[in-house]
Queue: 3 jobs
Job 1
Amino acid sequence: MEGKILNPTKTDSAISDLLIVSSSPHLRSNESVKRIMLDVIIALIPAMIGSVYFFGLNALKLILISIASALFFEAVIQKMLKKEISINDYSAVITGILLAFNLPANAPWWIAVFGSGFAIIIVKQLFGGLGSNFMNPALAARAVLLTSWPNIMSNFVLPGADAITGATPLAIMKYGAADAGASATVAQAAAELPSILNMFIGNRGGAIGETSALLLLIGGLYLLIRKVIDWKIPVIYIATTAVFLLLLGVETDQLVYHILGGGLILGAFYMATDYSSGAITPIGQIIFAFGAGALTALIRVKGGFPEGVSYSILLMNVAAPLIDKFTAPRVFGRSK
């Protein structure tokens, strides 16, 4: 550069090309809501394929009805509220898939329609739409369905073409093999429990999308690689659940059934990590996952339900704003 004479006019032009004066946020990324939602859908595809393999075409029908209903209700309510229709951001598709994943494979079609309507209209759009909902829409809808139609939501089908209903592994452990209302040890219920391998691959009774730990973990790994989710929430959630189950007296032989059974992995990777309804501060996310794990174990052992994932995440959703308030990082330049 020595001896080189710079053109002041040209220099000013170069600097102006590099500087962008705009309002916050100043950190920019190529990621978009649509791209993130598409990644989540891609992550859910293995579990979707597995649900159809294990539970047949009725599972596919419920998934498609849930998705179509969610898109329909989103478009209608946004039109009624005079908002821009945003069904092309795929968020309603994810709500539909996750709701269907929480349904028994033999559930009637109108359950999927009602659940999608409640999730989209009540939980999502009436609270401001995407990013403003304080609860996970699919989980809130599941809680309403379970309260309103407990017989339908608890009547699970075992994998196979004959569609025989049967208890889930968690129900067998909580109520006993004969549904006697008393806790059973693994030895007592061993004849009714599936093998660990079947628990892992998904060949067991349960909701459509929660049975295959293997396929859910494949999707979860994809989300971690794509940096859509952070490892802390699912890992701390599952680990805390396991520790508290042991502290509450669950036998070590039952622990793997609790981790692979129910919706723990589905909830940990795909619902507790929801950007809108979960905690957003780094410490807050740890507290959120810890609280969800402790509540899940408490409900499973001391509560009236064999499962506790839905209500534990919903309760922590409600607590998330308070958690964020007390764990917000200190702003530079300000004293405590």
Job 2
Amino acid sequence: MSFRARHLLGIDHLAPSDIVTLLDLAEDYVALNRRTVKHSDALAGLTQINMFFENSTRTQSSFELAGKRLGADVMNMAVAQSSVKKGETLIDTALTLNAMQPDLLVVRHPHSGAVNLLAEKVNCAVINAGDGRHEHPTQALLDALTIRRAKGRLQRLTIAICGDIAHSRVARSNLLLLGKMENRLRLIGPATLMPAGAGEMGVELYEDMREGLKGADVVMMLRLQRERMDGGFIPSEREYYHRWGLDADKLALAAPDAIVMHPGPMNRGVEIDGTIADDINRSVIQDQVEMGVAVRMAALDLLAHNLRAERGRAATGIMV
């Protein structure tokens, strides 16, 4: 097995072989999840704690379901409503967690780098469920699995990532992953919503959506993150939809068999037309949700395997 990471904090540290290993195992869990009996004992005896410093019903539910289907004891901590409100620091939280002896820790945090800091202070395996504008690795992995299943491969595709890229950790993780797999990447959106240094990322930049979509195999739409905007990033939502919202006319410029993706939740009529989102012949948005559970099961399984191996070596005094 090529996947030897202790934590899953981002895509940056993963080799292409790690990504393939994780996606291949996720395929097994897609099959398991479609069976009548959906349980495995891969995490039997282990404790998984989901700590969400930001609300996210979709991602938290996906991780909770993944852990339970693998037989873990799963606990959700509503951190945003408890100790942090009373002034506890992230380090205090880490020490408290360590005392509970968890094996797997799933963390979402509004600040970039906070999950990495937490991982340095605890003794268990940590999965980044999204930190600030930094990374959202399991979203990129589930997107990759969805693309591979829909297109039959994960290389040599033209992939357009469209919309609010500046505020998107999903875009960052996808750029890293899809770039490692040798795809042609395009970023499409208004200049005000492009990340700093976008011109140095080795991708193609388009402000004109119609030009950027020409011949694309994959069209990945991003949510307009109004809650992260404190200024005039767009003239109006009506104007934004007119220029950068995905509708049938713009989609017709992509490849005839192009698929449409969105990480959710969607702003219908802002970044995407509702009829496009619901078109089962083009949209794979519901497939992304299904693949999310399978990818998170694979990530939990691989990290648990490595954790058990590490503890086994420590118990027998073997140094690595």
Job 3
Amino acid sequence: MPLRIVFCGTPAFGLPALKQLIAEKDFSIEAVITQPDRPSGRGQKPATPPIKNVAVEAGIRIYQPEKIRQDAAREFLRDIAPDAVVIIAYGQIIPSELLQIPRLGWINLHGSLLPRDRGAAPIQRAILQGETRTGLTTMQIDAGLDTGPILEQREIQIGADETTPQLMARMAEEGAPLMIETLLNLDRGAIAPRPQDNSLATFAPPLRKGEGLVGWLQPAQVIYNQIRALQPWPGTYTRFRNRMCHIWGKPAESPSVTGAAEPGTIVANRGEIFVACGSETWLNVSHVQPEGRKRMTAQEFANGARFAAKERFLS
């Protein structure tokens, strides 16, 4: 008999796992629980969660409670009585009374090597902190925040130039077979859930908009980590002539811009823009998006701005 699964998730990070569960003969997806459709974009038109779109195509029953802490949600799950609930980036805290319903529990795919980086933004925080490795963890969730027993883990290297969307997509793909393996091993008793060592826990709270503001006293590599980590939101931005300006770039390697300058100082050189950073390092800015305008190349920005001598980006 295939394992009867309810899949609970919302953004694209869970798509590879859902698609593989649908394709595998060892599983029967009884329902998908996801967040309600929400207004999105300038037109505020209702947008469906990516997980819902796949479920619709597969003809899977969909449930979108405004709050999972409702009697109706409890009854919905009890009626199905799944063997396990797979939960990936759902976006709501699961009440403890629901955790007891599936016999194998609620199995979560988390984007870190727990107990490191518990919380909502483990992948972004790993890049922001300049980490060179992270990982994936499957665990049985409990009433705490990412504190449940660990089932399986897989280490993943972070590329030197990898951005959050790139790393997240790669980890989602690698997480799908890990989830399949975990469910099958758990069902046949081949996994001993391992309690987390709370003394080793670190935390990865949700991103805040203010974290996107560049501090030009920081070395260029730190700013580059910020640029890689904070895509697509909140992005990385600075102030230029009293207006906000999103920027992209990486540490400069050109010998023509070595040495010290006041942090934030702009040097335009042969169609490129270099900005002085802390520790006598320079950021080579590749693209700029001034407030209220489209993204443009550094050369296009320099041509329009006509920088004054020693003009600066400000924090």
